[in-house]
Amino acid sequence: MSNNMSVEDVPISRFHRLLTVRSGGGSFVDGYVLSIIGIAMTKVSPALGLSPLWEGLIAASALIGIFFGGFMGGVLTDRLGRRMIYFVGPTLFIVCSLAQFWVQSGETLFALRFMTGVAVGIEYPVATAFLVEFMPKKSRGPCLATLTILWFAGAATAYLVGEALLNFGGVEAWRYTLASTAVIGALLFIVRMGTPESPRWLISKGRHQEAEAVIRRVYGDRFSLKNLPPQPENNHLSFGSLLHSGYGKRMAFVTIFWTCSVIPVFAVYAFAPKVLQALHLSGDWASYGSIAITLLFVVGCMIGTRLVNSLGRRKLLLHSFLWSGLALLLLGALRDGPSMIILLMFGAYALFIGGAQVLQLVYPNEIFPTEIRAGAVGIGTSMSRIGAAVGTYLVPISLQTIGIGSTMYIAAGITFIGLIVSWFLAPETASRNLDDAASLEEERPAPSVSGKLSKHSH
Questions:
Q1: Region Disordered: what ranges (predicted)?
Q2: Could you tell me if 125 and 378 are in contact, meaning their C-beta atoms sit under 8 angstroms apart?
Q3: Where in the sequence is the domain holding 94, given as residue range(s)?
Q4: What does the alpha-carbon distance between residue 371 and residue 6 come to, in Å, rounded to a whole number?
Q5: What pLDDT digit, counting tens, does each position of 322-361 carry?
Q6: Predicted structure pTM score
């Protein structure tokens, strides 16, 4: 009996769920790694005699590492394959985290934290490429969006584990806190064992027999290469030449929208108590407000995940930028307003930006072909982390020099730049198979001037 069903239309299986766990672990570690250093730093600094300069460098070291790791991971994943690079991140997590246990200087800690950041950067392109190349069409968006929620889960776990270890671990507890990432790295390594190579990547390299064997193993003997949409073989093209062939505009879209969506988020998330204080909220208002905002970031991402298919990628992104930008604009205008209004606007921003947050990993994985998919995610990851680092660095300076009102207006301006770029460049990919979504043949026509947030027609 012939089987004409595409692998993109199969029901979600145990393999797909396990793959989501395998790939989601990278996002979990990212949230954990970036948060654990903040908790440990109060003990690390006096123990190692760190100067303010080295405190700042160590705090930023992982972000710097992610910048280099994103580029590196993207290139290596496209060139050497998904499966081989899948184990680089967990291996580095184990080695670098265990080494932090015996660290004796700020310089050594900086180097180890930097390499941990490189591992995180490598994770994004390889983990998301694996996920999108195996996942059925209907589950692709929600599964990629779930990775953003796992980032917050990792950050929350870091706070719980870090506080517990520092409270009950004695004088040297900070060493156990920094080394704790090794446990997650080891679990990630174990759970990823047995993952097959992506058949799409194998076909892009002309390795059809191996691709056929993987398809039969994952989907069953009734499936073969005939059930996979036709795959282009562009292995003779470089990343640069593919960008020049028309994907440069899409790379610009991904880089700009991703960066515009993370700069205000990182700034707000890192300095929520400081920002709330500048808005004349103090004491219980500030502490409860910080917790509420963190929870609303998670809720916003969860809502975005639910809407990513039903509302569509393009509509979700435009609405997310529009309403979160207006919330920041009102925060600037109402900076001297009642505490409840301030918290309401902050909460609205955290809630509405969730749509853009979850699309950071969906869009670059859907709108680029197999040959450069991981490279595109790597570039997006790297460039957005520059924005995050700059935003985080400038917030306290901005609050001190130009005040809270102007700082909020700048954040709103950055968000509206994301809206404008998305209005002109964001395609709709929700109901398309992966190869159609990555094709340049059906480029979206220029938007009409009707003023409506219209859905892309195809």
A1: 436-458
A2: yes
A3: 14-195
A4: 21
A5: 999 999 999 888 877 777 787 788 889 989 999 999 999 8
A6: 0.80
